[in-house]
Amino acid sequence: VVADTLEGRIVDNQVYIETLGDNAAKVFEQTEALQIIACGTSYNAALVAKYWVEHYLNIPCLVEIASEYRYRKTATIPNSLFITISQSGETADTLAALSKAKGEGYLASLTVCNSPASSMVRESDFTLLTRAGTEIGVASTKAFTAQLVSLLLLTISIGKAKGLDKETEHNIVKALEHLPSEIQKALDQAGDIDKLSEAFAEKHHTLFLGRGQQYPIAMEAALKLKEVSYIHAEAYAAGELKHGPLALIDKDMPTVVVAPNDNLLEKLKSNIEEVRSRGGSLFVFADKSAKIQGSDGITVFPVDSSYNVTAPIVYTIPLQLLSYYVAVIKGTDVDQPRNLAKSVTV
Ligand code: F1P
Asked: Strand pairing partners for 110?
């Protein structure tokens, strides 16, 4: 899916996004802020984009859940671009937010969408197709990784119109080119995740922790576990632990930590210790180079990810697989979870 999403969009180390059309570059040149609106998994993708946009483009990126944005009095940052993200392109709240945005003074609207023939594509000025194919399952999985790849391509595209330096663009493109093989390596670990999932199936709750651009990945991992295995799961920015969630830690509360080897790793190691010293059992998805030791109470699952910028996409794979295998053990219907609909049109 990731390879399909990238296919033809990187040529000679440059990003080309044909579905956006020629006029997009003119709008991007004027763009001084982004407002992204989405629901569910698509909202978590938007939160990752916020980290990328503010880090690489140095412009504000506001992210809001569609069902909140559509009903409140909002204020628009001058010269901002309105973006919706949706797998189905038919989600009622996101469509209503798009319709509301038309009277709010945005430069233009753009949708990152998986369905070419959808209402969202029809109603938006620009479209960036995610090309994830048909999602059979109700819970978004391949649409999520395709959204992330698309949002990173979009970040570069906006960046180019706003003078992003060539070296940064080149480094991000290099990371994207290596992504399909990194994803494949993660998929090859499915058997190990299957074994790991046994530790979760009997539990009633799970905590997920992440920092920086991996915090939204922890949120998505918690959402997936909830959706397909019906285990109560919550995600926290690891720095928030001491502001409340630490009270939940005991031997019956597994804590999953997303721990790539980045500039936040040392902080994250202290958070791991905060949980371990209170008797919590930890499952740390860590970069091989992060040198996190497994011990009593700490199980380390190695993840191979060489590029910081694309690490959120790579770490998503084992976490999605974890939900899948827990659901298989519990015998829930992974493709059609109870009470959920593929396209939330009301
Ligand atoms: C949003 C969403 C999905 C979720 C489920 C219900 O849909 O919350 O993320 O997995 O399918 O709807 P969309 O706007 O991305 O189609």
From this structure: 83, 126
Q: Is the CB of 264 under 6 A from ligand 1?
A: no
Which residue, by CA, sits nearest to atom 11 of ligand 1?
Answer: 342
| The domain made up of 2-185 is a member of CATH 3.40.50.10490 | yes
Instruction: Give the three-state DSSP class for 282.
Output: strand
CB distance 312 to 182 below 8 Å = no
**Per-residue pLDDT tens over the stretch 216-239:** 999 999 999 999 999 999 999 999
User: What predicted TM-score, i.e. pTM, was given to this entire model?
Assistant: 0.97
What are the angstrom distances between the C-alpha of 338 and each of 53, 140, 144, 225, 326? 36, 15, 21, 13, 16
Among 100, 162, 174, 342, the one annotated catalytic: 342
For residue 94, the SS3 value is: helix
Amino acid at 254: P
Query: Which of helix, strand or coil describes residue 321?
Result: helix
Instruction: Return the structure tokens found at 67.
Output: 């069902």
Q: What does the alpha-carbon distance between residue 232 and residue 64 come to, in Å, rounded to a whole number?
A: 23
**Do 135 and 270 contact (CB within 8 A), yes or no?**
no
C-alpha dihedral (273, 190, 198, 255), degrees to nearest 10 = 20
Q: How many angstroms does the Cα of residue 343 sit away from the middle of ligand 1?
A: 6
Q: Is 342 part of the annotated catalytic residue set? A: yes
Task: For residues 19 and 243, give the distance between their C-alpha atoms in angstroms, rounded to a whole number.
Answer: 44
64 CA to middle of ligand 1, Å? 15
Q: Is the CB of 41 under 6 A from ligand 1?
A: yes
Look-up of token digits 């790539």: 260
- The residue length of the chain stands at 346
Tell me the CA–centroid distance for residue 344 and ligand 1, in Å. Answer: 7
Domain 189-330 part of CATH 3.40.190.10: no
- pLDDT, tens digit (0-9, with 9 covering 90-100), for 165-174: 999 999 999 9
Domain map (residue ranges) of the chain: 2-185, 189-330
Tokens, residue 100: 């509301």
ipTM over 0.90: yes
- Counting Cα atoms < 13 Å in the Cβ hemisphere of 26 gives 6
Equal fold, 2-185 vs 189-330? yes
